[in-house]
Amino acid sequence: MVQPAWQDPVLLPVDTAPVPEYGSGSLADLLPTLVAGQGVPGFTAAIPELTPADRNCVFLIDGLGWEQIKAHQDEAPFLHSLLPTSRGGTGRPITAGFPATTATSLASVGTGLPPGEHGLPGYTARNPETGELMNQLRWRPWTAPKVWQPYPTVFQLADAAGVRTAQVSAPTFEQTPLTKVALSGGSFLGRLTGEERMDVAAERLAAGDRSLVYTYYSEVDGKGHRFGVDSDAWRGQLMYVDGLARRLAEQLPPRSALYITADHGMIDIPFDEQSRIDFDEDWELRAGVALLGGEGRARHVYAVPGAEADVLTVWREVLGEQFWVASREEAVEAGWFGPRIDERVRGRIGDVVAAAHDDVVITASVNEPHESAMVGMHGSMTPVEQLVPLLEVRT
Fold first, then answer.
1. pLDDT tens column, 251-269
2. Phi and psi at residue 218, in whole multiples of 5°?
3. d(Cα 258, Cα 58) in Å, to the nearest integer?
4. SS3 225
5. CB 302 within 8 A of CB 283
6. Per the omega criterion (within 30 degrees of 0), is the bond before 145 cis?
């Protein structure tokens, strides 16, 4: 039924957003569950469907969500065949966490904590100490890593408990601050090609009676951003990574469990004015805003002091039919960032948080030209972005 022009718009209630399964089925729960099964003190099995193994390997494919695997059986026959094994044989996905973006998700994986505790609540977030917007993926401007994220990683705690621990990834990631605060502990083994990473991951898995190995591949996400998940370039990467997963699975030593997961899914956004709302060209959305953080489908909006209520009202009026638009307090209360929020993290969350419901993004053509030109996007709580696989191979 067509809504009469005089009728007030139907705004999306904050409590209708599908909050991630923190504590029972999110990325933050994966490593704690695995190391609890290996006898590492201080951890409990948060994902009850998983069965303990002496040797655990996590292969994280950046950008390859649950919905993408389901939709591409021809390009990913091996991964598609494993869908029934997901989440301990239930055939169900887990959730990434909010926002569904790489920096946040990798920190959740490595620390075993939701974003409200590890403190990387988005692609960019305001540093309350300086008032500057910090890019948490590229770590700019420089911020002391251990101040920004002070908790030990699960890898560090597992290594201290005698589990043989390793990360196998591209050499360029070894010294990055994000690796230091989220994925460090045990040995870092840099390998250039995907095939080398799979082979070394299998070797390191076999090196201990109890072992925990993490390996990573990024280019599915890279091609998705640049060309979209409906492109031949993206499909080519999916075919390649399907072969990598099979290669690793075929080399697993005895008493092993391989878990194939992702940090988020992805959605293609059309290049039209209805689908791409340009903050830098919209005087209503800019009014009273000091900083625009986050990314296109998961925005942190930092208001000029005293303008918080007005900014919330305007953003709801302009975007509330297409985005879940919440105040900081509402987003925290609804559990978007997890059940607990550290005080050091609270000020990093926007005064207003906007999470996309429809196929739409808030770009910033002047201040974020590279990000605004991307085809594939992610960040919000919709199934295509939020649901990630937890495919399993055991020996």
1. 999 999 999 999 999 999 9
2. -105, -20
3. 6
4. helix
5. no
6. no
CA distance 256 to 237: 27
| Cα(232)–Cα(225) distance, integer angstroms | 13
Tokens of 30: 């994966």
Reading the block at residue 50, the tokens are: 């998983």
pTM of the model: 0.96
Mean predicted lDDT score pLDDT of the chain: 97
Backbone angles phi, psi at 394, to 5 degrees: -125, 150
Burial (CB count within 10 angstroms: exposed 0-12, middle 13-18, buried 19+), residue 328 = buried
How far is the C-alpha of 83 from the C-alpha of 90, rounded, in Å?
9
The helix (run of H) or strand (run of E) holding residue 22 is: none
**Rounded Cα distance, 20 and 189, in Å:** 32
- Element holding 326 (H helix, E strand): strand 323-327
Cβ neighbour number for residue 291 with a 10 Å cutoff:
18
Q: Which residue has the tokens 């978007």?
A: 336
DSSP H stretches of helix in the chain = 30-37, 66-71, 77-81, 86-89, 102-111, 115-118, 145-148, 154-160, 177-182, 194-206, 219-227, 232-249, 283-286, 308-319, 328-334, 343-346, 369-372, 383-386
Locate 108 and state its tokens.
């959740």
Instruction: Tell me the average pLDDT across 367-388.
Output: 98
d(CA 44, CA 37): 8
Helix (H) or strand (E) holding 324: strand 323-327
